[in-house]
């Protein structure tokens, strides 16, 4: 959450409320109090339910009633309803992400290129590992903070929480996620202040310790040459692009990164939903588990990987093999996740019959039964209750309950004709617990996720150094930027769209919006969900190892930096064949123009 980039909030007054999406609605102090309340009422989050505060306290219209002649909610013209709730607040989200992208540019790619050019060659992997660890600190903090705020109702302060009939474990619950954006926006503004005091230029690390004046002059001349080339970036843009496109290792690396990024983006974004549906966890718990078990091991892996590269002065060839082998081990271990499964929630009319017998999901199961046909229930509603027989019913009416006791989330339903048990045929709001066996499976899944995250991050720094060292110094900024651009455009944008569409195909019951249109999915077939959630990323990652294998073959044939020791302060470039040199005919450093090959250790 905290890594979303700075967001500046102007003209925030003390008189505002937050709507169903959590965006500020600025109110004019000259308008009446009644008008303010009307605006707040229109934009307040309203979850799908048949139990309203009025019926909760005084009426039983949501229970089993014979010969019901009125609907539970007043009808409304769909066109007018859609027009009333239509919002353009998504524009703020789009603008915020544009600002985020602009704010990330000085760090990625320019920051990485700066470190690679001005740090000792053997130190840059460790520095980049520290940078990547710092980037993970933001998501870890944001997820932990988001887990806390997800337990707070989104319209806190404007609704009476005692009237709520849902808990944070319910799929209809929306937490106060907007608080995190306010906090992170303020923190980002404070953190950005020290950047204004950075000097315009920094000395190259290790230059002051080099007693060889000749080498010092050579490096100084090369730096001046690089500065002149940066001023001519507009003229050299097309030649640099041509040079990068002719770099086989670089293009194969982009292809591998795009395929891998598709897989990781899909798994990371939909992991909370998977934990909710598969293991019965609330959104807050799912976000906390994601931040606690997945991201800290990644931080450790980045640091350890960078330290190993520095300590043992790993060459580019060895780094390529290390990255490939570790990533392959991580990939093979992910198949163990197919075994850590739980059963579907026993929901009558969806996954089980009213007798408690599991039903096939490929055929439509009857929602009504002999025990509730007399109740005149709405069949598309979603107000789940858990009977004392261990079965879930989509509403108290469909459970045949005729009496309720208590208010809010403490309501208990009695005299439920569909609940056949040795008890008093009662039910409570919410889904039933999945049991200890499912909790054990969750623990195994989280431990395996931590191991996979650690192994993956150990391979990340060696692999990234292969990318940095396979392109020439003057092309690094453009090369890293094009690499990041490719992952965002071909993975970050389309991946959630098509993966979400695939997951939607496993939905068993759709919710209903205020205007009567289909809303969010309330219940999934978790077996199909699991196969898509792990199967599609596995196919994407598996296909990504084909170009990675070709990278290993090319690395073996080419003379790469780090294979032969040389001047450490000079930039590292790989030895090119005559054909590749013609394809990459761009400005070169004085050393390369004289035919000398610059080879350094990482």
What does this entry look like structurally?
- Strands 4-3-7-6-5 form a five-stranded antiparallel sheet, with no helix packed on it. A two-stranded antiparallel sheet has the order 1-2. The protein has a two-stranded antiparallel ribbon with strand order 8-9.
- It is elongated, with a radius of gyration of 30 Å.
- It contains 19 helices and nine strands.
- The protein has helices spanning 33-43, 53-57, 78-85, 90-104, 110-118, 124-149, 178-192, 213-231, 233-245, 248-279, 283-293, 295-311, 316-333, 436-469, 476-492, 494-504, 526-557, 578-583, 590-593; strands spanning 16-18, 24-26, 385-387, 392-393, 403-405, 412-414, 427-429, 507-512, 518-524.
- The protein is mostly helical and 602 residues long.
- The model is unreliable at 1-40, 70-75, 564-582 and 584-602 (pLDDT under 50).
- α10 packs across α11 (283-293).
- The chain folds into two domains: 64-75 and 344-433, no CATH class; 92-341 and 437-593, Growth Hormone, Chain: A, CATH 1.20.1250.
Q: Total strand count, please?
A: 9
- Element-level helix/strand string: EEHHHHHHHHHHHHHEEEEEHHHEEHHH
First and last CA, distance: 34 Å
CATH top level of the largest domain is: Mainly Alpha
The proportion of strand residues reads 5-15%
How does the overall form come out from the CA principal axes?
Answer: elongated
CATH architecture annotation of the largest domain: Up-down Bundle
Mind describing the biggest β-sheet? 5 strands, antiparallel
Alpha-beta classification: mainly alpha
State the CATH superfamily name of the largest domain: MFS general substrate transporter like domains
- Indicate the radius of gyration in whole angstroms: 30 Å
Mean pLDDT: 77
Number of helices: 19
Low confidence ranges: 1-40, 70-75, 564-582, 584-602
Give the helix level as a range of percent.
40-55%
What is the count of distinct domains? 2
């Amino acid at each position: 959450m905290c890594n979303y980039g700075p967001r500046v909030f102007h003209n925030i007054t003390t008189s505002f409320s937050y709507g169903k999406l959590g965006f500020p609605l600025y109110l004019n102090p000259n308008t009446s109090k009644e008008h303010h309340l009307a605006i707040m009422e229109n934009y307040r989050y309203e979850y799908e339910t048949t139990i309203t505060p009025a019926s909760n306290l005084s009426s039983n219209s949501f229970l089993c009633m014979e010969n019901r002649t009125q609907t539970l909610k007043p009808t409304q013209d769909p066109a007018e309803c859609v027009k009333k709730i239509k919002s353009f607040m998504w524009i703020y989200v789009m603008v915020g992400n544009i600002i985020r992208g602009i704010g990330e540019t000085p760090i990625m790619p320019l920051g990485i290129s700066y470190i690679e050019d001005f740090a000792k060659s053997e130190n840059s992997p460790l520095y980049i590992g520290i940078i990547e660890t710092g980037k993970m600190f933001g998501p870890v903090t944001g997820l932990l903070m988001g887990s806390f705020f997800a337990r707070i109702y989104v319209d806190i302060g404007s609704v009476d929480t005692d009237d709520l009939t849902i808990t944070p474990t319910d799929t209809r619950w929306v937490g106060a996620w907007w608080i995190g954006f306010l906090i992170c926006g303020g923190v980002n503004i404070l953190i950005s202040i020290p950047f204004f005091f950075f000097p315009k230029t920094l000395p190259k690390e290790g230059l002051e310790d080099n007693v060889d004046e000749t080498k010092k002059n050579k490096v100084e001349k090369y730096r001046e040459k690089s500065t002149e080339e940066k001023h001519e970036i507009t003229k050299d843009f097309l030649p640099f692009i041509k040079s990068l496109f002719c770099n086989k290792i670089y293009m194969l690396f982009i292809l591998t990164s795009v395929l891998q990024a598709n897989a990781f983006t899909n798994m990371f974004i939909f992991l909370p939903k998977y934990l909710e549906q598969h293991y019965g966890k609330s959104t807050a718990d799912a976000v906390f588990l994601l931040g606690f078990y997945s991201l800290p091991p990644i931080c450790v892996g980045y640091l350890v990987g960078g330290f190993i590269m520095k300590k043992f002065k790993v060459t580019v060839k060895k780094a390529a093999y290390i990255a490939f082998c570790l990533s392959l081990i991580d990939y093979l271990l992910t198949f163990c996740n197919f075994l850590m499964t739980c059963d579907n929630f026993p929901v009558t009319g969806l996954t089980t019959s009213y007798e408690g017998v599991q039903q096939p999901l490929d055929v439509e199961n009857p929602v009504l039964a002999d025990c509730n046909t007399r109740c005149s229930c709405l069949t598309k509603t979603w107000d789940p209750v858990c009977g004392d027989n261990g079965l879930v019913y989509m509403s108290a009416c469909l459970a045949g309950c005729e009496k309720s006791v208590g208010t809010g989330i403490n309501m208990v339903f009695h005299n439920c004709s569909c609940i056949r048990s040795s008890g008093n045929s009662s039910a409570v709001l919410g889904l039933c617990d999945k049991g200890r066996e499912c909790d054990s499976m969750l623990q195994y899944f989280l431990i395996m996720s931590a191991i996979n995250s650690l192994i993956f991050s150990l391979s990340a720094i060696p692999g990234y150094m292969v990318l940095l060292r396979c392109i020439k110094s003057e092309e690094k900024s453009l090369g890293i930027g094009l690499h990041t651009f490719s992952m965002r455009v071909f993975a970050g944008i389309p991946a959630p769209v098509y993966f979400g569409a695939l997951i939607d195909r496993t939905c068993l019951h759709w919710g209903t919006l205020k205007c009567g249109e289909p809303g969010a999915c309330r219940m999934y077939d978790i077996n199909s969900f699991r196969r898509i959630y792990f199967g599609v990323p596995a196919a994407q990652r598996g296909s990504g190892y084909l170009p990675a294998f070709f990278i290993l073959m090319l690395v073996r044939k080419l003379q790469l930096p780090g294979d032969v020791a040389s001047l450490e302060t000079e930039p590292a470039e790989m030895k090119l064949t005559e054909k590749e040199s013609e394809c990459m005919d761009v400005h070169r450093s004085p050393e390369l123009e004289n035919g000398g090959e610059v080879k350094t250790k990482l």
